[in-house]
Fold this sequence. Notes:
Layout: E1 10-13, E2 22-28, E3 34-40, H1 58-62, E4 72-74, E5 80-82, H2 85-103, E6 108-112, H3 120-132, E7 137-138, H4 146-156, E8 162-163, E9 170-174, H5 178-181, H6 187-196, E10 201-205, H7 211-214, E11 218-220, H8 227-240, H9 246-252, E12 253-254, H10 256-264, H11 268-274, H12 279-291, E13 295-299, H13 301-304, H14 309-322, E14 332-333, E15 347-349, E16 355-357, H15 377-381, E17 391-395, H16 399-402, H17 406-415, E18 418-423, E19 435-438, E20 447-448, E21 457-460, E22 462-463, H18 476-487, H19 492-503, H20 506-519, H21 521-525, H22 527-534, H23 547-559, H24 561-566, H25 573-586, E23 591-595, H26 599-603, E24 612-613, H27 617-625, E25 640-646, E26 670-672, H28 674-680, E27 687-692, E28 696-703, E29 711-715, E30 720-723, E31 729-732, E32 757-763
Parallel strand pairs: 6-7, 6-17, 9-10, 9-13, 10-11, 12-24, 17-18, 18-19, 25-29, 26-28
Antiparallel strand pairs: 1-2, 2-3, 4-5, 4-19, 8-14, 15-16, 20-22, 21-23, 25-32, 27-28, 27-32, 30-31
Helix pairs in contact: 2-18, 3-18, 3-22, 4-14, 8-11, 8-12, 8-14, 19-20, 23-25
Bound molecules: iron/sulfur cluster.
Iron/sulfur cluster is lined by residues 14, 16-17, 19-21, 51-52, 54-55, 182.
Amino acid sequence: MNEPAAPEWHKTxxxxxxxxxxxxxxLGGDDGRRIVRVxxxxxxxxxxxxxxxxxxxxxxxxxxxxxxxxPLRRRPDGTFEAIDWDTAIAEIAAGLVAIRDExxxxxxxxxxxxxxxxxxGGMYAGSLRRALGxxxxxxxxxxEKTGQAWVNQRTLGSTFWHxxxxxxxxxLFIGKNPWQSHGMQRARAVVRQIAKDEGRSLIVIDPRTxxxxxxxxxxxxxxxxxxxxCLAALLAVIVQEGLADADWLAEHAVGLEEVVKTLLDISIAxxxxxxxxxxxxxxxxxxxxxxxxxxxxxEDLGVQMSLNSTLNSxxxxxxxxxxxxxxxxxxxxxxxxMVPIFGTTKEFRDDDGAIRQELSPVTQSRIISDLVPCNVIxxxxxxxHPDRFRAMVVESSNPAxxxxxxxxxxxxxxxxxxxxxxDVAMTETARLADYVxxxxxxxxKWEATFFNFEFPRNHFHLRAPLLPPLPGTLAEPEIHSRLIxxxxxxxEEDLAPLRQAAAxxxxxxxxxxxxxxxANPKVAGHAAHVLxxxxxxxxxxxxxxxxxIWLAAQLAARKYPESLARAGYxxxxxxAGNALFEAILTNPSGTHFxxxxxxxxxxxxxxxxxxxxxxxxxxxxxxxGLASGGAMPDTEGFPLVLQAGERRSYTAQTLIRDPGxxxxxxxxxxxxxxxxxxxxGVGDGxxxxxxxxxxxxxxxxxxxxxMQPGHLSLxxxxxxxxxxxxGRDKITGVAPNELTAVEDRDDFAGTPWHKFVPARLEKIG
Length: 765
Ligand code: SF4
């Protein structure tokens, strides 16, 4: 008898963090729609077979019980009714157009556009935004990374850099635990390798003794919220002990004098004490950084969501710039981007010559990287200001859960005239919507991440669907195209010539498309949609949604011809772009698209004379302000510091909603130091009431000496509502944003202080 054929392995990627490790999966179950086996894909150009434990849990995402399978419309009594797609598209388009016509398209806000692994939808949403004149948008980056993006733009003329941890002599993690939050390819393997190598050093700045800190050669267990003093003291050592790279600075930097003057004034001993660190440890760490041949740095949410967050980013940039680590192998580099993640911050000079930035319409908050700060969104809605947002389109995001002060956010979303949510599941935000549009899951459509940050070789992975869409769902690019067609902003007369060109091949299409972009504002304004409807149908295996990637490849070939040529995509820009697109389409494991020299990073410094600018007056003023205390929320009555949103082994934003994937109690617990536990008389597994100025919740406590006394930690991505086997909604764990406040945010970028929430803990019963 013949053996049954072994189930086929299909190539895809994990979508649970930004590294998107390449995977191979087998499908099974009664309907063949379950992800039953998962292993790393050794052919993936970056992850090379690596995964962490989370990839094994993807079926909890794919087959969640709260998947949506029909468009929903809210009835007057508040309940939802199922409607067909044509009705939903027609009514939503009419509703958005009515708001645009009465109040202006800029009163409709767009939020989201993708999570960790699904950025194609956001690309097509750009066309919808232009169809409606939607000026303002935001997403999670505006509560995490905008301070850093602003600093990067001012100091480097470029919004992003990435540490080369694979080749560094010193790895410096600032408010970052790559063991759990990854953020770079093969994170655990790389961290272990650096820790084992006697010639290399691992430095961690983190109040917690995280898994990464446990392996570190230098662990700077800074007092929560005191990172800026720690970073300032490190820089002061470098300047005061004459350790800066004078030759590099002379050749590549301006603005050194004012920075040096400010750092010379710092008392290292005093700042070390404020940071809760030994002065000797600070000095030894600074010397190790200055002496290294290649320092790779990663700053993450631990400092970007804490006090002085924009200043922290500035100080981090000074660390790699003063030590000459930009554009160096094993240092910090500016990768080639297929699709830039950060928009440009619009700045202009007013009549007095002062630099001004674009501001949000109601609260007049800085718009950085084209994103409205998340923490001000409620105040941009709940007001009688004539310029308030009146409608929102939310895509693949859950602001009612993920942004500060969920109660205030629910109030704001409920106050909109129209809220449209596009998502795979019945999220906390979808529950507040007027219309909910069900999206196909990330394994049911062509998808890709734009988080491609590797240097010197960068890669791109376009994923083919594993499964047909769940009946009743559509991929986001199709949803956007249908809405644009219902709005009627692009006509058949705009598309027909391009359809004809697409039939003649990609070279002819490129000529026609770029000519149309130059001549026809409708094509230029709706480029992704136009591609979807013209080039898209010519792509193999139903890959219409990949049409936008064709444009990304073409633009990359124009912007980075040498980088692409080194990776094997040469010829004219159109030829190189087409060759790259073909490689992306035909490599199911992903493909390298660029190869760079470290010196390329220096050429990407887009400031006068190609020199980095060290002197940011706004930040130097904040740096000097540390001497008198720096930023601090009201702590009266709340003596502890809560870090709201720790990444653990079983947390993944809110992508997996089914609590069945939580394999340990630690996934949901509030972790506290033994002294704090003893202080209120609770032990491991005990119950306590955690209170902040904004809310109060019951928690289960886990006692862990790796926490500092007075420091508490709650996981991220929990507190989600999910139906049990009988269809009754149940909440598992605590939603951190029931405890956070919108006003606790960085003065400059508006990023929230989620890692410094004043709190109180009391034993229950
Ligand atoms: S969670 Fe991140 S590191 Fe882990 S398997 Fe998924 S993509 Fe890779």
